[in-house]
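Sanity check record (used in CI):
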Amino acid sequence: MPIPVILDCDPGHDDAMAILLAVAHPAIDLRAVATVAGNQTVEKTALNARRMLSLAGVTGVPVAAGCDRPLAAPLEIGDYVHGESGLDGPAFGEPSVPLDPRHGVDLIHDTLAAAAEPVTVVAIGPLTNIATLLRRHPEDRERIREVVIMGGSTDRGNHTPYAEFNVYADPEAAAEVLGSGVPTTWVGLNVSHQALVTADVLARIEALGTPLARVCVELLTFFGSTYHETWGFPAPPLHDPITVAYLIDPTVMTYERVGLRVELDGPHTRGATVADLHRRMDWEPNANVGIGLDRDRFWDLMIGAIEALGRAS
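Expected output for Pyrimidine-specific ribonucleoside hydrolase RihA:
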């Protein structure tokens, strides 16, 4: 049976690819998409989610804009990576998918309430929407099977030397979700940096020859240019779709169950995730933390999704 999923995101080039994978694969039953401020403002991330669903030819999945700022800190956006629109690179027309009038948090709550079974939440932006949901509707803890999160790192960070962007953007929210009692699996930079969009990957996508494939190449080429300019990467890492790939095929990623904390107070380390991989602390294991990636299996899933949607459109 397909896994019922709510996608909470901030598109973003890698979020855009995660949307395509989620709608293309029969193992995923995408029930709703909520967006949050992160890679761009929430108005732009909602527009970008609608653009990608429209491009994929998907109707019937509601999209709503959620929280426009973090719980406690000022908003910082990732425009230095994703550009003025949040999806710089291609030229997009007006999306055919409408904006749901509900607040994104209300959309998540309503979708959970309507489900006959617990739903998996895939959270690939700052965790503001999910923390707000659990504050407003603590009963929803029982309606969430798991939150699969793109966030954190067992190594260094990217937005700051030790903090990954999604967690840094709202560390209070990340800490609340981690401490909520809802099961969590974390896909950090140490995993996603194993999913580089190398020249051979771009060539495989381009060879598909469909309009969707061309848009994907344009998106990933822009993404690669900002990654090279900012961090010197020869090829950019495609973070967010790993969360969806892991749900489709759990052998894509190996993980360890460890004690995990979110740093809130360090002047140089705020937003860092601290994973007790070597069991040095007296911490009860409280999260699944990604360690390794089957790169070939991941790219077969991702490129297969682009191919399938391109054939259908």
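The radius of gyration is 18 Å. If this sentence no longer matches the regenerated tokens, the check is flagged for review.
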